[in-house]
Amino acid sequence: MIECVHIGARVGNFEIRDVDFVVPTAAHCVLTGPTASGKTTLLEIIAGAVAPTTGNVRIAGLDVTANAPELRGVGLVPQHGYLFPHLSTQENISYGTRDAGTVSSIAKRFGIEHLMDRRVAALSGGERQIVALCRALAPQPRALLLDEPFSALDGQRRSVVLREFAELQADWGITVLHVTHDETDAALGTLRLAMADGLVSSAGLART
User: Fold this and answer.
1) Can you give the chain as a three-state secondary structure string?
2) 72-93 pLDDT, tens per residue?
3) Residues 183, 111, 141, 148: is their CA dihedral positive or negative?
4) Residue 37: how many CB atoms within 10 A of its CB?
5) pLDDT, tens digit (0-9, with 9 covering 90-100), for 160-192
6) What does the mean pLDDT of the chain come to?
7) Are 9 and 15 contacting, i.e. CB atoms less than 8 angstroms apart?
8) Could you tell me how far CA 153 lies from the centroid of its own chain?
9) What is the C-alpha end-to-end distance of the chain, expressed in Å?
10) Closest among 200, 79, 53 to 145, alpha carbons compared
11) Contacts of 37 (CB under 8 A, 6+ apart)
12) If we measure between CA atoms, which residue out of 119, 123, 138, 4 comes closest to residue 77?
């Protein structure tokens, strides 16, 4: 479960005020809204990259507001991947986990096992996004935050990744909050949130 309770934050001149919503355990919720409405900032608050000025973040029933990002049990896939350029694909995916079996299994599932020895500079934009997704999944997080994670994919690869991700999310019971403008990606979600004017409308979701 991902829960935001009266979340407020200020980043520069931008402000989020009094955001409340709950994403139930193992649900896939899609967060939509216009550019600069605070969607990415909200993900960063949940992940621990941005500190809220008010309110609390709870993951799986635990208050993690004061926890460091690595102690939250949350995976984050940024829009542009942000891989470690000095590491190989395998080293990027392995970051945060020592389970080599899971790393190998995830890479094979998403069709990038042949890229494991390559450096980031040798990867295409789409390949980098898949590596970023695999890196976030490898520690088997309780919750996963996605910021336009499939935007760089096209054609058959996109279809395969979307299918495999949906199956894996269901198999592992991961709670997902997913920012997207794409209708195909949005179809993955079972619940919807709309972001506007710094507020979240959570029709169909549990309210705090």
Assistant:
1) CEEEEEEEEEECCEEEEEEEEEECCCCEEEEECCCCCCHHHHHHHHHCCCCCCEEEEEECCEECCCCCHHHCCEEEECCCCCCCCCCEHHHHHHCCCCCHHHHHHHHHHCCCHHHCCCEHHHCCHHHHHHHHHHHHHCCCCCEEEEECCCCCCCHHHHHHHHHHHHHHHHHHCCEEEEECCCHHHHCCCCEEEEEECCEEECCCCCCC
2) 999 999 887 789 999 999 999 9
3) negative
4) 20
5) 888 899 899 999 999 999 987 766 666 666 555
6) 85
7) yes
8) 16
9) 13
10) 79
11) 195, 196, 197, 198
12) 138
- In the chain, the amino acid numbered 99 is D
Strand arrangement, sheet containing 14-23:
14-23, 2-11, 54-59, 62-63
Amino acid at 131: V
If DSSP states are collapsed to H, E and C, what string results for 123-160?
CCHHHHHHHHHHHHHCCCCCEEEEECCCCCCCHHHHHH
